[in-house]
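Researcher: I'm preparing a figure for a lab meeting and need a structural model of a single chain. I don't have an experimental structure, so a prediction will have to do for now. The sequence is pasted below. Please return the structure as tokens so I can convert it later.
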Amino acid sequence: MLSRAPSVLTNDGDLADSGVLVSFPQAVFMANTIEIEGIVLHLAHPDTIPMKWIGSDQTRDQLVASWMTIADHDVPLNPRLIGIGGVGKTTLAYAVAKSLGRDVYIMQCTMDTRPEDLIVTPVIAGAGRISYHASPLATAIITGGTCVLDEGNRMSEKSWASLAPLLDQRRYVESIIAGIKINAHRDFRVCVTMNDDASTYELPEYIQSRLQPQIEIDFPSREEEIAILSFNVPFAPEQVTKYVADFLQKAHAVNLPFTSRDGVNILRYALKLGALKKAAPEGFLSEAIEAILGKDGAEFLDTGTPSDRLRGAMRETQSQDPDNESYFDEDEDEDEDEGKPF
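Model: Understood. Here is the structure written out token by token.
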């Protein structure tokens, strides 16, 4: 909740409020509301989530650079983060924004997202009154926060068109419903995450040109994967965590769409089954993999390394990390396989 002392408009139209300047002419904050052009908007609350980016420093630097301004008339870029679901796109955006001291607002986009959902929504407040509620995006625009438009390519062109002036030098949005124009705070930042699947739209060129640069999020290394799993499931035995990380690394080597998010769910489920049965979780990893990843996961687990392509990828992975003990090596003797989860 925003809690602010009484506000005073300065001579240049900025809002002096508890030491914070908000560049909105005729804007007055009142608790968690703000008045713009005579319309009182109820603001959304920022997200507070225990997220930590564990991955490439280069990828992080690309996002930080996108959001930098290096001159008085410079404006930040609006990056789009590309990758399959579960590789950490939202985590990266959230963690970087928090490290820069920003409030973060995550807005989930769907094919049903309307232009008014993106900016201001009218709500019946009782006694025939209408109250206007700012979306997470609009709240970030007003307060100078960072908004993550999650899975933005699920939105239709009509919704994206309402954001076109926000994503270029103009940096404003207009609410037709409330009848107001909202200029972006100088600290406002935005990024868009995008998945690549059959349920997404192709973005129009005029929007793609505004969502730059494109930052690709790839699969993590083995060390990063272990760190990600350990951060999210810190109560998992170290060896079980390594088993799951190795399984994911083998899948990454042949471009199977199994991600760290899947690994976290596999770990949690195996641990829960073990606790229920009062047995070691290693014995439930195969069941957990099949339950989380379905037929593809079960088949990959059962077949081990049946093809030359997979064997070659496995050798390359092991040559890069000679100390990495493999739990998927088909050349091991059957006796050596006893007691191993896969």
